[in-house]
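Lecture 7 notes: from sequence to structure.

We start with a single chain of 308 residues. Read the sequence below before looking at the structure.
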Amino acid sequence: MPHFLDLATPTAAGLRAILDDAHKRKAARAGFPKGAVDADAPLAGHTAALIFEKPSTRTRFSFAQAMRQLGGSSITVSAAEMQLGRGETVEDTARVLSRMVDAVMLRANSHATVEALANAGSVPIINGLTDISHPCQIMADILTFEEHAGRPVAGSCWAWLGDGNNVANSLIEAASVLGFDLRLGVPHGYDPDAGMIATACARRGSIDVVRTAAEAVEGADVVVTDTWVSMGQEDTKAKLADMMPFQVTGKLMAGAAKEAVFLHCLPAHRGEEVTAEVIDGPQSLIWDEAENRLHVQKSILLWCLGKL
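Now the structure, written as tokens:
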């Protein structure tokens, strides 16, 4: 059973299977109450552990509802409620949970923690967010683009603006695997992970780091950003000043493609990384994007459990 720790390890066919299944499952639920089980109930009898080292809204609700809609169940705990990395090793926790649940989703402080769980356990481990990557979020972003554009993501052009953070890293991986162009507009000193860029380019991905927002968005089909200051970060005043030239404004969006859309993984800070006119305007797909965390994560769970 495969793990879902990043977007570089699964093949293009694997990611495509997840996206195609998510499109079909979302369409099949039209008119269903949100808590109703899918007609095929593919995870009946299955349980997932949902573990949170960091606070969460979308990840927590989407994974819990995903298991419910698939016919399974979930057990949700914070790291403070268990012995993860404290009273016992991460590896021992993995061995225990593997005897009690069918899959584990972890929203972690360190990517090393999800890797340790995957190496020691015998059930699929899903990365719900780490300091290095956020693969589930980018899969939801791609699903959102495809349902809006009515075409696969391959061949499209995306622009990332702001901090080269974990979300940007996963976008780099996705672009190289699924075949879309990516320009990252980031200030000096805030580049994404150099190793991920090198790996993506070796895979013949079209990845460019640029130093102006206008160059990043020129002709782009999708403009993406994220909060500039993540949980636990310090020196916020200096960072906000460095990031301000990369704020997504209506004027900046006008430089993108005519039908360009705006995405943001949320939570958002209007007036910082994006203006209210953009995030609350007609080009914004943020609410579809947030909902699609649920739909794509259902298919990620099925892929991990060998149901696709």
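DSSP finds twelve helices and nine strands in the chain. Keep this in mind for problem set 3.
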